[in-house]
Automatic annotation (TrEMBL):
The keyword Glycoprotein applies. Belongs to the carbon-nitrogen hydrolase superfamily. BTD/VNN family. GO terms for molecular function: pantetheine hydrolase activity. This is Pantetheinase. Residues 31-306 form the CN hydrolase domain. Residues 1-22 form the signal peptide. InterPro entries: Biotinidase-like_euk (IPR012101), Biotinidase/VNN (IPR040154), C-N_Hydrolase (IPR003010), C-N_Hydrolase_sf (IPR036526). GO terms for biological process: pantothenate metabolic process. The lineage of its organism: Eukaryota, Metazoa, Chordata, Craniata, Vertebrata. Gene3D superfamilies: Carbon-nitrogen hydrolase. Keywords: Glycoprotein, Hydrolase, Signal. It comes from Balearica regulorum gibbericeps (East African grey crowned-crane).
């Protein structure tokens, strides 16, 4: 985790479609992204400036999405991947969008003005639709607060660290508000109740949570033990400390202990020892990456079991 700094969890995943309606395996990919950070400021930037920074990061991530899709892969990109950190509650606001409940049946790529302004959701939706892949992103959600709500923040709306999922057509199919916020992640609010969000694909049942969530029963253990997911998507900003590659060792052990696939994409920021991503299975790592020397991003691919609980070698 990032110590003594507020985190903004912004990650992008993508899951490429298979030609068959169902498959015993799928090609998974994770992308460790060297995020372009905003300038440190005590004053909010304009919405146009906020979007300009996010588009720079999404340009890179879209390239990774296309490369993964060309290889028939399912892509996961890291936490902090769209706009980084360095935020207060006030300065994060221009980067947030109002993310509706997936029950609204919305494709931002083809109907961008329905819940406008939502340029980030529109672009992510189009990445999914144009490449026939699932795209999962960790971005920020803002919700107006009713004055009759005694929990209403004193300084404005609710602000949530949020995962969104877009399907092959670009439709919003899932939304998750992070429940276990890391220390000094003061730009966000806790949801009133923990959420356990899943979505079905032709290649198994997926669950979602972000970074610090992995250490708690809700949602991490609930997704595995009660909701029986096959694969967990996990964007993170995790610090590694030598001689132990903490992210790789811990995340691999978690996948083995829980008996599910864990697609872990770490932020690449070597001055804070942020590196260490992988595709982890109940039988051990299928692929992993650690690079503390360069500033380059990295795409990893591996073929995984879509339903590891049904494998004859399931632990």
């Amino acid at each position: 985790m990032l110590p003594a700094r507020p985190l903004l969890h912004a990650a992008v995943f993508a899951l490429a479609a298979l030609q068959a309606l169902a498959s015993d395996t799928f090609i998974a990919a994770v992308y460790e992204h060297a995020v372009i950070l905003p300038d440190a400021t005590d004053e909010p930037v304009s919405p146009d400036d906020a979007l300009a920074l996010m588009n720079k990061n999404m340009d890179i991530l879209e390239g990774a999405v296309k490369e993964a899709a060309q290889q028939g892969a399912h892509l996961l990109a890291p936490e902090d991947g769209i706009y980084g950190w360095r935020f207060t509650r006030e300065t994060i606001y221009p980067y947030l969008e109002d993310i509706p409940d997936p029950a609204v049946d919305w494709i931002p790529c083809t109907d961008p003005t329905r819940f406008a302004p939502a340029p980030v959701q529109e672009r992510l939706s189009c990445m999914a639709r144009n490449n026939s892949i699932y795209v999962v992103a960790n971005i920020g959600d803002k919700k107006s607060c009713n004055s009759s709500d005694p929990s209403c923040p004193s300084d404005g709306p609710y602000q949530y660290n949020t995962d969104v999922v877009f399907d092959l057509e670009g439709k919003l199919v899932a939304r998750y508000h992070k429940y276990n916020l890391f220390r000094r992640e003061n730009q966000f609010n806790y949801p009133k109740e923990p959420e356990a969000v899943t979505f079905e694909t032709p290649f198994g049942k997926f669950g979602i949570f972000t970074c610090f969530d992995i250490l708690f029963r809700e949602p991490a253990v609930v997704l595995v033990s009660e909701l029986q997911v096959d694969t967990v998507l996990f964007p993170t900003a995790w610090m590694n400390v030598l001689p132990f590659l903490t992210a790789i060792e811990f995340h691999s052990a978690w996948a083995m202990g829980m008996g599910v696939n864990l697609l872990s994409a770490n932020t690449h920021y070597i001055s804070l020892a942020m590196t260490g991503s992988g595709l982890f299975t109940p039988e051990g790592p299928a692929a992993y990456h650690y690079d503390s020397r360069t500033e380059e991003g990295r795409l990893l691919l591996a073929e995984l079991s879509a339903r590891p609980r049904l494998s004859p070698t399931y632990p």
